[in-house]
Amino acid sequence: MITTKRTTIAVLLVIAVVIAALLGALVGGGAAYAAVSRSVAARPAQVLPQTGGVVPRPVLAESAPEVLRTVDVRTAVTDAVAKVGPAVVTVINNLSTGGPGSKASGSGVIISKDGYIVTNNHVVRDNQSLEVILRNGKTVSAQLVGTDAFVDLAVLRVSEPVPAVAELGNSDALKPGETAIAIGSPLGQFQNTVTVGVVSATGRNVDTGNGYQMEGMVQTDAAINPGNSGGPLVNLAGQVIGINTLALRGDGSSGPVAEGLGFAIASNTVKAVSNQLIALGYVARPFLGIQWQPITPDAAQAYNLPAKWGAYVTQVTEQSPAATAGLREGDIITDLGGQAIDEEHSFINLLLSHKPGETVSLTYLRDGQSRTVQVKLGERPRS
User: Fold this and answer.
1) What is the DSSP track for 44-68?
2) I need a surface site. Which of 29, 278, 312, 331 has the fewest CB within 10 A?
3) Residue spans per domain, the chain
4) 112 is known as an active-site residue
């Protein structure tokens, strides 16, 4: 019995030693694993030279907020908007028509530290007084410097310090597919709204319905809404590449409705016209001295006219360049400056492509015969 008890005790002691050893190994191994984990967490992911594999860096829950705080959300678009946005204004037109308190609104952009602002002519038409709302919400009075209806541009000026000045870019360098950013105040309520699209095309001509076309327009699919008129179209460099002026959506009848057909006045045109408006208060336009009606193939067929395209002279002003050149009522002008009048080249656009004082050739039909004369253009009287 004594021997058996001693044997049992010895066995129990061995088992206890083994269990203790196992527990020690487990505790030690856990401590070693924790140390390795802390070491891995403290180092970036490493490439193993033997296998090319990557040891992933553990993501600790408490580090997630710090990672989110350091995310950089700046893009070329946000940088461009940050550059131009402070120079964009809302234009308020206190109308002289429509009764007391009648207002209209549009957008504009500051182009000079001297307070000059470019917008559309149709935004400031029939104004009694003008105001602009700056980016910070401050409303200041503005003076009308000059307008040009043919390109739908106007220049205003504010006397207070301006918050920023936008740079006019080179519209001749534009390519279809470039990112285009429109900034303005749609409906006059949502100041500095940003819409993004592309330059859909350049050199577009848009019929105004007034006998001439607006030429060399920049087409974009960036959303242009009422109130965006006069605001800038911007490239990714933060340069103004156009002044938004209109969007086509169809004729309102049963025909198809178009989307994404916005048009802006090219920035190079804006430069040329705004410089004249600032220097002179107006744009010097050529003057021929006639009243006229456009001839189209339909009109030519209806009235049995000898030309499908042209300008039918209905009146000649006395002592005008036209009178000096011998033009009469009933003549049909078919060519000006060596360019025939046709579907793509209206008479008024051909005339506007020349300068006051310039001598140009003019071809007209009279009694079925074609005649060509030289005309020295005058300067269009200011209304």
Assistant:
1) --EE-TTT--EEPPP--GGGHHHHH
2) 29
3) 1-46, 170-269, 286-379
4) no
Q: Does domain 170-269 have CATH number 3.20.20.150?
A: no
361, 373 in Cβ contact below 8 A? yes
pTM of the model: 0.72
Catalytic residue among 148, 152, 331, 335: 152
pLDDT in tens, 299-316: 999 999 999 999 999 999
**Active-site pick, 105, 107, 122, 221:** 122
Q: Is residue 298 annotated as a catalytic residue, yes or no?
A: no
> Which class does domain 286-379 fall in?
mainly beta
Tokens of 268: 């190079």
Distance of CA 378 to the CA centre of its chain: 35
**Catalytic site includes residue 105:** no
Active-site residue (options: 107, 229, 267, 274): 229
Per-residue pLDDT tens over the stretch 62-80: 554 555 455 566 799 999 9
Distance of CA 240 to the CA centre of its chain: 7
